Amino acid sequence: MQQSAEITHFRHGIDFDDVVADTTELKTRIARKFFPRKLTPPKGMFRQDVVVRKDSERDPSRFTQRQYNRLKEVVFTDPKVGINLHEVPHAFETIRRLKEEGHTVMIVSNRTPRAAEVAAQWLKKNEIQLVFYPLFVHHDDKREVIETLDLMSYTDNDIENLLPLKGKVPHLFLFHTEHNADVDEPGITRVHGWEELRGRIRAIK
Q1: Alpha-carbon dihedral of residues 187, 193, 199, 203, nearest 10 degrees?
Q2: Which residues fall within 8 angstroms of residue 137, CB to CB, at 6 or more apart?
Q3: Where do the structural domains in the chain lie, given as residue ranges?
Q4: pLDDT higher for 182 or 38?
């Protein structure tokens, strides 16, 4: 009981895609179904910079920008598809435990309103009650919204979303994935999964 009394409760923000929901895995599944002749990248690497060919290239195994945009539209905004997302391992259990311990956990995502609604339906289906702050913007800078939330920590799998928050949010966590494995940024702590993230959050004083 003494240990739990020492834990300080704060507000914590998390990204949605590939932090709570394994969006990359769903994109891979849908791509294999509708584009069976296209390149299937290594696990965790189904990203635009990996699978989309440049305008000057003629590689038929790679996606055109138009094909990739269509794939993303289906995965993010079609409720019949988006509802089939898998959770990132231990996400649900850990979120529930953090909330039981008194922490406030909220999602900050740059999904469009339509895509955010699909994500909210998925969370409801899985009985995860979280405040969802979609960013109705056309860029990746989450600073403006996050600065209004008085967060003690923010977690994202994209270093470009974390960099603008240095000096704005006390604790920044880079959620480990294959595509960010080589990133090493001072002031941003890498976490290898939800169990480590919970430990880091519980250690904040």
Answers
A1: 10
A2: 110
A3: 2-22+85-203, 24-82
A4: 182
Q: Mean pLDDT, to the nearest integer, of 89-97?
A: 96
Token digits of residue 127: 């009985």
- Fold type of domain 2-22+85-203: Rossmann fold (3.40.50)
Q: Please determine, for residue 137, whether its predicted confidence score (pLDDT) is greater than 70.
A: no
If 0-12 CB within 10 Å is exposed, 13-18 middle and 19+ buried, where does residue 29 land? Answer: middle
Average pLDDT over residues 189-193: 98
Q: Are 126 and 23 in contact (CB under 8 A)?
A: no
Tell me the per-residue pLDDT of 106-120, one tens digit each, with 9 for 90 and over: 999 988 889 999 999
Question: Among all chains, which residue has been given the structure tokens 């090493």?
Answer: 184
Per residue, the 3-state secondary structure of 62-130, as one string, reads CECHHHHHHHHHHHHHCHHHHCCCCECCCHHHHHHHHHHCCCEEEEEECCCHHHHHHHHHHHHHCCCCC
Angle of CA points 129, 132, 135, to nearest 5°: 170
Q: What angle do CA 17, 63, 85 make, to 5 degrees?
A: 25
| pLDDT for 4 | 47
